[in-house]
Design a protein that fits this description.
Strand content: under 5%
Number of helices: 8
Largest sheet: none
GO biological process, one term: CAAX-box protein maturation
Helix content: 55-70%
GO molecular function: endopeptidase activity
Order of helices and strands: HHHHHHHH
Keywords: Membrane, Transmembrane, Transmembrane helix
Protein name: CAAX prenyl protease 2/Lysostaphin resistance protein A-like domain-containing protein
InterPro entries: Prenyl_protease-related, Rce1/LyrA-like_dom
Number of domains: 1
Radius of gyration: 17 Å
Number of strands: 0
Length: about 220
Amino acid sequence: MASVVGPPWARPLPWVLPFAVFVGLLAAAPLAQRAGVDPRDWYAVRTGVTLLVLAVMWRRCVDLHRAPYWRGVALGVAAGGLVLALWLALDQDWASLGAPQVSPFAADDTARWQFAARIAGAVIVAPLAEELFFRSFLMRWLVRPDFAAVDPRAVDRRAFLIQAALFASMHQLIVAGFAAGLVYGWLYRHTGSLWIPVLAHALTNALLAAWVLTQGAWHLW
């Protein structure tokens, strides 16, 4: 593992900035809605802007340039299915932060392009931005500030549990979020390849999207 070159304040940007933009635009959603912006349109803006940031940062994020650990692909697929099963099983009041809200995408007038933007955000943007931040950056940074020089297979238990807890805090289904953080973190520690948890995360979200659309479980979106 090589250290990231550049001034200290700028070194984490490729790992942190996409996630910061993704979360920042989520936080700004109520302001956009008060200004008359349809929340479904705002989600499309959030997806597009974060994708643009990911594209700009791509060359500087060395973890995404490393070839996938191909023998771990089957493990990633299995883990993605496992997290979905846990997510559905833990869709319980006792495992949630407050009452669930119905998604604006449940409205009958939702356009296909709005559904497409929602799915792209869940299957492409969220796995990349969140795995870059929580697993590749935060989990290793908790071991040593020179995080890029930390082999993910050497991450200690404290860092492993903290990243899962912080990942859980981003989700209404907090217990399911913690379980997902443990699974994705374990994949990164076990394989040493960021692409495996990205694959698992993307598959979980794709399967969840299919469940929501076919079962009408809009509170999960």
